[in-house]
Sequence to fold (871 residues):
Amino acid sequence: MADLSYDFVGIKTPNPFWLASAPPTDKEINVVRAFEAGWGGVVWKTLGEDPPVVNVSSRYGATHYNGQRIAGLNNIELITDRPLDVNLEEITRVKKDWPDRAMVVSLMVPCEEDPWKYILGRVAETGADGVELNFGCPHGMSERGMGSAVGQVPEYVQMVTEWCKKHSDMSVIVKLTPNITDIRSSARAAVRGGADAVSLINTINSIVNIDLDIMAPTPTVDGKGAHGGYCGPAVKPIALNMVAEIARDPECQNIPMSGIGGISNWRDAAEFISLGCGTVQVCTAAMHHGFKIVDDMKTGLSNWMDSKGYKSIDDFRGLAASNVTDWNQLNMNYDVKALIDQDKCIKCGLCHIACEDTSHQAITAERVDGARRYEVVDEECVGCNLCLHVCPVDDCITMVEVDNGKPYMNWNQDPRNPHSKAAE
Amino acid sequence: MGGIADVAAGRLSADELSKNFDDMYPALGESKALIEASRCYFCYDAPCMEACPTGIDIPNFIRKIQTGNYRGSALDILSENIMGGACARVCPTEILCEEVCVRQTQEGKPVTIGKLQRFATDWLMASKEQPFERAELSGKTVAVVGAGPAGLSAAHRLSMLGHDVEIFEALPKSGGLNEYGIAAYKLPHGIAQEEVDFILGIGGITVHHNKALGRDISLSELHEKFDAVFIGTGLGAVRALGFENENIKGVFNAVDYIAKLRQSEDKTDLEIGRKVVVIGGGNTAIDMAVQAKRLGAEDVTLVYRRAPEDMSATHHEQDYAKLNGVTIKHFAKPVELLEQDGQVTGVRFEYTAKGANGALEGTGETFDLMANMVFKAIGQVFIPDPATNSTVSLEIQDGRIVVDENGATSVPGIYAGGDCVYGGEDLTVAAVQDGKVAAHAIDKVLR
Ligand SMILES: Cc1cc2nc3c(=O)[nH]c(=O)nc-3n(C[C@H](O)[C@H](O)[C@H](O)COP(=O)(O)OP(=O)(O)OC[C@H]3O[C@@H](n4cnc5c(N)ncnc54)[C@H](O)[C@@H]3O)c2cc1C
Ligand SMILES: Cc1cc2nc3c(=O)[nH]c(=O)nc-3n(C[C@H](O)[C@H](O)[C@H](O)COP(=O)(O)O)c2cc1C
Ligand code: SF4
Ligand code: SF4
Ligand code: SF4
Fold:
């Protein structure tokens, strides 16, 4: 059986599945239930200065898709709304009772050295394994000069990271906000500041819906709404790209990563790990289904690793990162064509109309003795994959490689490129 | 034992009866409808649409349910099929749209098109809106004979196209078999009349009740007085078994009994036998058997002379009857009605078999079934007299009116559709389509 345990920048965890800093990790009662369910670790809900913040009523919005609930979730909650002492006391007790689990404490205080120094000292007393610096929260806190307001300015990220390393022996994880043009600039700042790791992504600025009856965004607080942070399955592709960007950036120096964003099952987790993450963090999926989902995450990952012969997390960690490249490095001579398995085809015609209306008019719609028949015209097919994605039948359309005998040639070498070397 | 007689009303309490004759399937709630609608792939050249006799744009109406555009959805349905609400409940979808749904091909579970259609049309009916408008008036008036699905559909479309319509209906109520024939649990709670009101609500249609063609009016008269005539009189007569004692007490025409049942407010006044035998293999036989059971009959046996696959009742309907406790026997034909003192006591059947050339033969072996009530449901026939015994006479084939693809009969200006025409499917939805098609053909001529 595969070994799921991991040593993440000195923080030992029995499995890579952590709960992200959010409502699931808000209190002792939640965290104990999570540990009982089998989660490897938690990042405690972000602590701040006293007096604690006050939250509004009506806090979450969601994107439901075709009858499926919560493709994406958004929230306008702030950091913990409980006093610092209460949180610290609970953290101390939980860490003592669950010594084998990872206990990371998320922090957000004003951008001055003293408050950071003070709170780091207090957290150190709890026995926690590390801290995560919340530079990511896109709402409420950033308007108070914290959260993503800091995360969006690389100089601040570096400065606060330096303070934390200076005033604490705990591992320092910098949580990155995706609300920035190039994620690498803040990741590089964290590296320069001496961060042990980065975690990403925090939530994305968003308005999930407009209530067309009252003409206001949801969640609606007495007729008004504010932008909130978006998370859940919908954000996973954005998170994966940002993780990959950091993984392949030389200036980021292979900084350890904890992957976050839309992770709902073991497969999502394996994808983040394959891009280089050592642990993953989950929020929305737990908020949707409860803590029990970790059971599938652990056994699913373990069974998949066994089937692939991976014995530990490091055996496959980062394997996909080297296959993420720039567009101009892709092989221009690679050629695939769609192929329809007529026995599997149920004649819905979606491939035809998609290609006909919006792609390359490469799938014919015919009647053969009255029966519908959809067929790919190889000469017209450019291998875009659209039909494959719209086809409702698994493995009915496959993309088949055409062996054209041509060697690898990227765009820089392509004579069709006006600026290519070959064209000169 | 004592107490209740072999034939008696009120075998079940009013409560049980009202449950038994309530909606056979519950309506889809909003969230269930959304989930079901999401199963539709929005097919291109959708097979379901081709299988719908009225050609409803099914993917389109389902997508509109998905997006909450319920009004748009209902209009997609009603603009092709003004009885979309009734059809959603009575169509044998398992041999129409749902049979060919690609989800059926894929996983043996079609999108439940009928239920979704009901969801959308119910929404519009509840809104009480009258969504259709009449075109500029043409000044022409068309006579329609029969206020069943075919006649009402023709009348509505003709009115929409700007023509005035006068309907002549033999019975005191409109709706045809929707009102007098369809099983009570398929169209409960006055739905048939609500739909009639909705259809007539467009205006320009006058219904003359208790006016029968052949009795109160003649075809030649209508032909003369009106700019065009549409005949949608359905099937008036019932096939007989051909026994001398067919008129003894306890022997009924299923359609007559059902008509009475449909008009009964709470079903407590309907007499039903302890032991019931239904003879026949179609919709009517199944509906009769199930409704007899639901009225409280102890044993209901449906006897059909051929194989299960020869029955015109679909598989789904046969299963439904069995689910309701009806015993179905195949390969037996009635040879004698057993009686005592002028009251039926049973039926003697002879086993049948398919002979060498596929023809049905009696085997000579017989068996008796006890019965306090026997229902004949071996098919209805058209009564051609009113259409032929007049100075204008229509061409008839196999006892029904001959029409072309536009519903035009052999006499110019006279059209027909629904069950009374030759070559039809004998389904509500087909009658609606016939009426609609004929209305457009008439409109073309009148312009
Ligand atoms: C018991 C039973 C159950 C059925 N179940 C189903 C089902 O579940 N699903 C389905 O799709 N189909 C079903 N059908 C078939 C369906 O009801 C018919 O196909 C449909 O009603 C035909 O419509 P129509 O307008 O042609 O005739 P009808 O509905 O018969 O309407 C004819 C109208 O004309 C009137 N009329 C008749 N003669 C005259 C006259 N001389 N002068 C004036 N008016 C006249 C009648 O009173 C009636 O109102 C069933 C039929 C029966 C008998
Ligand atoms: C209601 C809610 C509150 C959150 N609060 C915090 C927080 O206090 N600190 C923080 O770093 N991230 C916070 N997050 C962000 C999550 O930790 C996580 O980064 C994000 O939800 C993406 O992961 P997911 O797609 O698994 O939900 C919050 C998210 C939600 C939904
Ligand atoms: S791969 Fe693209 S171009 Fe080729 S058939 Fe499919 S949709 Fe058309
Ligand atoms: S999308 Fe798939 S199932 Fe539908 S017609 Fe095309 S190949 Fe067949
Ligand atoms: S065939 Fe089925 S899936 Fe396709 S459009 Fe019709 S209902 Fe939808």
Q: What stands out?
A: The mean pLDDT of chain B is 94. Chain B has three domains: 7-20+240-376, 38-127, 141-236+382-446. Chain B touches chain A through 16 residues (CB under 8 Å).
